[in-house]
Amino acid sequence: MQGSDCIFEAVEQQDLDSVQILLYQFSAEELDLNTPNSQGLTPLDISIMTNNTPIAKLLLRAGGRESPHFVSVEAREALIGSLVQEAELRAADLSSQAQREGLSLEACQKDKTLKAWEWRSKLYRRMRAGFLHARAPEAPSVVRLSVSSSSSLSVNFQEPQSLNSTVITKYRVEWSCLQDFSLLAGEMLLENLSLRATISNLTTGRLYYVRVSAYNMRGWGPPAAALPPSAAPSSWRECEVPRRRGHIEAMERLLQQVRATHTHYCCTDSSKLQNPSRKQSVSRSLKHLFNSSNKFVKTLKRGVYLAVVLHHKDSLLVTAEDQIPIVEVDDSYSSTLMQDFLWFTKLSCMWEDVRWLRQSMSVSTSSSSTLQARHKMLTAAGQMQILLGTHNLGRVHYEPIKDRHGNVLLVTTREADSTHTHTLGGGKWMPVSKLQSQRKSLSTPEEPYALDILIITIQDIMAYQRRGALRLTPGLYLGFLKLSSSVDQIRVLVSQRHPNMLCHTRVRDNGNVSREEWEWMQALAAAGERSEEAEQQLESHAPLLYYELQTSIKALLKHLNLPLYQSRLLRLYSQEVVELGHGVSFLLLLPAADDVCSAPGQSNAYTPLSGFLHLPLQMFELVHFCTYKEKFIGLYCRLSSVLDLDALITQQALREAISDSEVSSAKQRHQLILDYIQQLDEVRRDLRWITDALQFARYRQPRGGVPVSALVNADAPPRQRAEDRLHLLQQRLLADPLPLARAPAQEAPQRLPAGLR
């Protein structure tokens, strides 16, 4: 039996399981899903006329269509009527023949044919009854219109509230510049049960009215007007000066200039696949993996080490001694370790250039400690690449692991495509749980070494690496910008689930902010906190974004464990919409100017309970741009790491210069590198949206963004206000108990106000 016959039989028998299996195993083309049978019907026609909604929806999602013979409702009614009549005539004819011929072999065969036609007659009568009792669909419900860009609108809607037990097979979206739709600007048919549409190629700033109607076998139903009924394609960028573009081109030009200063420098593109000969050489180098002559460290002594966590699912690649691959970087470290570590993190985007960087550095005993430390980092990375037989060591973890024994562990993580990628030599794949149990029996929990800490937290490290590479789904989000400072760095509050972005909540699916919405936000920022009269006027003229922000702000504050009444001083960033790319946009919620960055030991009302990380600012930007601006951060890391080394080398050459010509040449060379660094910083500054937001957040101005109190009611409830006043009074009494001691003994103590008792 052919695929088309199978699908017809399954639909006619109303066998949902068989239909699911056929659609899973075969494509619509293999099943001839839209080819009418000899009666002029498709499988979808049979399912909708028998009101079998589950099967009809399966067929629609698979691309099923109605028969092209049904050009009108009358044509459908005529065809089903003729099929019923034909089936009844054939059944009656076969029945009379069976009565005349009696019992015979030929009569038995005709009896089977008679039963088949009787069954088909019942099927067609049921289809005709379903058609006659059906009515045209009602209008779709909850039709929402939004501005998705400066040249497009988005329409989202739901099925009619009453389906009349009839399957809807398609929807029609119409748009017009006239409110009465007397002249259409365009229309679009939506099939496959799609409940959303994007109307593209529209004129910016022009008003379009939109409506949606539904269709079933009885024809088109009445249209439903969108809410709002009209919208004009626009973008917030029409009101503001957008960020400059062309950063990639500027950095590529700068890269060419830097290349010219290095005769043998050639920045390779790590995104390109290696050629076959290169792969073979790497494969041959894998033969040296984990052999007895390698230099993997087994026991940590005082110093700096590099560890590579190469994992696949829940397994790790370990050495023959069941150890994580570790090599020594240096036997000591200086106070500039964090600066050297931040430089080392840039190698995540340029592992291919480690060998060249190491060879291009001329390091001597008179070189600066920073230059020597970075040369040792490059040497350790190159050694690890040779031992593992791969250039790509993965992403550097956001902070080094330190212990009380003087050890520092730099960790990189990489997820392998399969366990067959690296299996040569004495190395093997080991489940994480087994490695942890083995190490637990050997470690000393009182004074754990850095390696113990790594193994204990290795699942969190792998989870961070996986989550840090995931992008948010397209849409508009509300993010919370909160920083904290320590002795040597500034940290950003992020969620563990999305470490590449600020703590956030989703506002809506549409990532665009229209000109109308942005002008409304600017009006709020200019007006400040609202009065009762302004509140009524605001709600009467507010766009849908107003209500979406209300819901999002409450959800975000709940996520941060911050009571609504403590959010009165929070503000909405009103300088720009942060557009990350890939359809993801952010509005930022800012703390008060004094609370943007918490100092060490400062009590912080915004500290959430759990599920959050405090990433160093540089590491946050690295993982953020690696996710959303991969090409930009790749070029930046290459240029920055090379220029930083060049600056140290030229500075060393300037110190060692003796003659006037040597000094002049060294100065010229050093100044050239400084000019390159300045150009690179200017290009990077244009994309560092977090820097602009921080400068705005810390600027104490009377109109610094949209106050949260202009969007939600941030007043404390009466009971909470009383508790706060009582707590304040108790704190004052604890700080200065003398006023009560100095009070006259004959005077009765004052009673607390009723609201504080």
Automatic annotation (TrEMBL):
One of its GO terms (cellular component) is spindle. CDD domains: FN3. SUPFAM superfamilies: Ankyrin repeat (SSF48403), Fibronectin type III (SSF49265). This is Ankyrin repeat and fibronectin type-III domain-containing protein 1-like. Pfam families: Ank_4, fn3. One of its GO terms (biological process) is establishment of mitotic spindle orientation. It comes from Gymnodraco acuticeps. Residues 139-234 form the Fibronectin type-III domain. PANTHER family: ANKYRIN REPEAT AND FIBRONECTIN TYPE-III DOMAIN-CONTAINING PROTEIN 1, WIDE AWAKE.
